[in-house]
């Protein structure tokens, strides 16, 4: 998990530097989408850092001392009925990293929306993109609050989970998580579909159309990695081990926004490629 995160931080940072170079030196067209991507990268690095810390703590724990969320502790296991300080730190990192992951994805969607608005002139199309962006803002904000307070105050989450306290049912949590993941994928392709429809109806040369459509497709290719993440989320309760299930889910939580950031940055590098070819 740590190695994977380090690789994606490096790749996204390099692609962002190239994006900054293209937008400031080659085309001299720095925009709001670039500012949004800068903040997205910062949030992504923070998310990976939190997961690195979680991995370090979990590696140091033995199976007897590790967290056992989603499982009610029986009377025959009194040694783990109360969370230790290390348990609490580990679980807090999961909760906080989930929140920063949601913020990272929301900022990435905002950057993509602003990127596509550069190509869209039609009023109906611009309103559609802004409408879906505002909807996603409120929807993600709701999921953000849910991830923090689904078991009451964040400080009580671990204790209630380990002692079988009253929280929102796992089924409701699963439905909400899957619904948000699917809407995340559909939003990306909705953003790309509108400008593609406009381009195909335009009188631009065929080669230009193909090139532009390719750029749009590259920009949203990161959404494809959201599908395995949703699948891994649905298998959390069925995992044979807490560590295996959680780690697989967190790996995709690193890959999904990482690929999204990388793809969105690569989509802006065509001027650099043209200059290199010349």
From TrEMBL:
Regions that span the bilayer: 6-22, 34-57, 93-117, 129-153, 173-200, 212-231, 251-273
GO cellular component, one term: membrane
Location relative to the cell: Membrane
Protein's UniProt keywords contain Acetylation: no
InterPro entries in the record: Rhodopsin_dom_fungi (IPR049326), SAT4-like (IPR052337)
Sequence ranges assigned to domain Rhodopsin in this UniProt record: 18-274
Principal localisation: membrane
Sorted UniProt keywords: Membrane, Transmembrane, Transmembrane helix
Topology with respect to the bilayer: Multi-pass membrane protein
Recorded family membership: Belongs to the SAT4 family.
Protein name per the record: Rhodopsin domain-containing protein
Organism this protein belongs to: Aureobasidium pullulans EXF-150
